[in-house]
Amino acid sequence: MERIIVNPNKIKKAEIVVGIPSYKEEDSIGFVISKVDEGLTKYFSRKDAVIINVDNNSPDNTKDVFLTSNTKTPKIYISTPPGVKGKGRNIRNLFEAGVELGAKAIVMVDADLKSITGEWIQYLAEPLYMGYDYVIPIYVRHKYDGTITNNITYPLTRVLYGLRTRQPIAGDFGFSGRLARAYLTEKSWSDVVSEFGIDIWMTTIAMARGFNVCQAFLGAPKAHRAKDPSAHLGPMFFQVVGTVFQLAVDFEFIWKELEESRPTSIFGFGLGVKENPPEVKVNVENLYKSFIEGEKKYGSFWQKVVAPINLEEILKIKEMKIPEVDVPADLWARILFDYIVAYRDEQKDRVELLNSLIPLYYIRTLSFVNHTTDMDTKAAEEYLEAECRIMEGEKYYLISKWNQTPRKDGLPSIAQYLGE
To answer: How far apart are CA 337 and CA 333, in angstroms?
Structure first.
């Protein structure tokens, strides 16, 4: 892909690279740049470093703010061509730049962060010098910040790939130059990966391809533009969940052989960190209303996708009041597994298939809110951990349904190859 590059210092080589993906972030990127520079100067002063803004040709002053920011670390601006957007395209430019510069360690952080410190750079980069290839952050988040993570990406990645990575779509990661080269050779790159599917794609590829993965506690609650989980999801849901499902199809040969998950190594520490992440308010009435309206719109779709016994259980919610709504973890797991198999076989209308999952996701979110409304962050995390263990226990259902449902794409399953 054509790139627009501004390299004022003519940098041709760097051992450590920090990338900041952006689109219209003139009001926030300056603070992030200052903290990135602070971290590089304090912890990696003996290494050749560069800060790269990978941008979508922002129509505001993002580029100017980046290039004119006062830093000790040299900077490079890289943009997609005018009219070409997508976070994944920005990050692919970061992969390419990191490889071209010969970087051993590459870190990426969101451009809208309000809580980033210089220590974030230390904790995301140091494990890369200790033999790890991929570093996923752990930070304190409000219990309702990241409901796609809590209800879909976190439980499914541990069920499918056997690693407990709490924030698999965090947006802030560290990865080795070796892994960056591997990303560039992957055949599973797609249009949705080029946009919001990129984070879960990176995490899944790192796990599925056997790279060394760890987590790093960043020592501060993540503060950015948090959203009410009942608000309109836009294309993000389709792109993220669609990527999860597609990779499940691609890596069938891996997840069928894994029986349980295991924790990863964790770097960093949380001494003195206060649990005061920005509050996320949830409109529970909207969540419930979306489910009721979703049943009217997608009821016939659900009958084709969700197993009758599972559909019967979820539709009982129509008779419940909002505070009574409960979607048990085992039922939610089986519904997600029904959708994975349906996604495998649906070749024409996958967008509509994933849209039909949204009302079910909303009612599962409402169930999570009902169970955790009086819990603090720690208690909510313990509750989620117990839910994920229950979901892991339902993996037999996915494998059984996957093997017993005839594929509609004309390809034989692994079970057929093995004569099972």
So the answer is: 6
Taking 90 as the threshold, does the pLDDT of residue 163 lie above it? yes
Contact 50, 73 (CB under 8 A): yes
C-alpha span between 347 and 411 (Å, rounded): 13
Tens digit of each residue's pLDDT (9 = 90 or more) over 367-416: 999 999 999 988 999 999 999 999 999 999 999 999 997 766 555 554 44
Instruction: Give the C-alpha separation, 114 to 224, whole Å.
Output: 6
SS3 338: helix
| Helices 329-345/154-161 angle, 10° precision | 70
Tell me, what's the pLDDT at 222?
76
Which CATH architecture is the domain 4-267 placed in? Alpha-Beta Complex (3.90)
Q: In this structure, what token pair is assigned to residue 371?
A: 């169970």
**Coil, strand or helix: which one is 44?**
coil
Residue 418 predicted with pLDDT over 50:
no
For 9, 55, 63, 113, 238, the CA distances from 67, given in Å and listed in that order, are: 11, 12, 6, 18, 34
Burial of 376 (C-beta count, 10 Å sphere; 0-12/13-18/19+): exposed
Mean pLDDT over 297-324 rounds to 96
Tokens of 356: 């039909």
8 A C-beta contact, residue 16 and residue 97: no
9-49 pLDDT, tens digit per residue, is 999 999 999 999 999 999 999 999 999 999 999 999 999 99
CA angle 39, 129, 264 (to 5 degrees): 100
> Mean pLDDT across the chain, nearest whole number?
92
Distances (CA, A) of 54 to 43, 66, 257, 290, 366: 23, 10, 38, 36, 36
Strand partners, 403: none
C-alpha distance from residue 117 to each of 36, 120, 417 (Å)? 8, 6, 51
What is the signed CA dihedral for 365, 368, 374, 379, rounded to 10 degrees?
A: -130
Tell me if 78 sits within 8 A of 93, measured CB to CB: yes
List the helix and strand counts (H, then E) for the chain.
Answer: 17, 11
Domain extent listing, the chain: 4-267, 284-410
Neighbours of 343 (CB within 10 A): 21
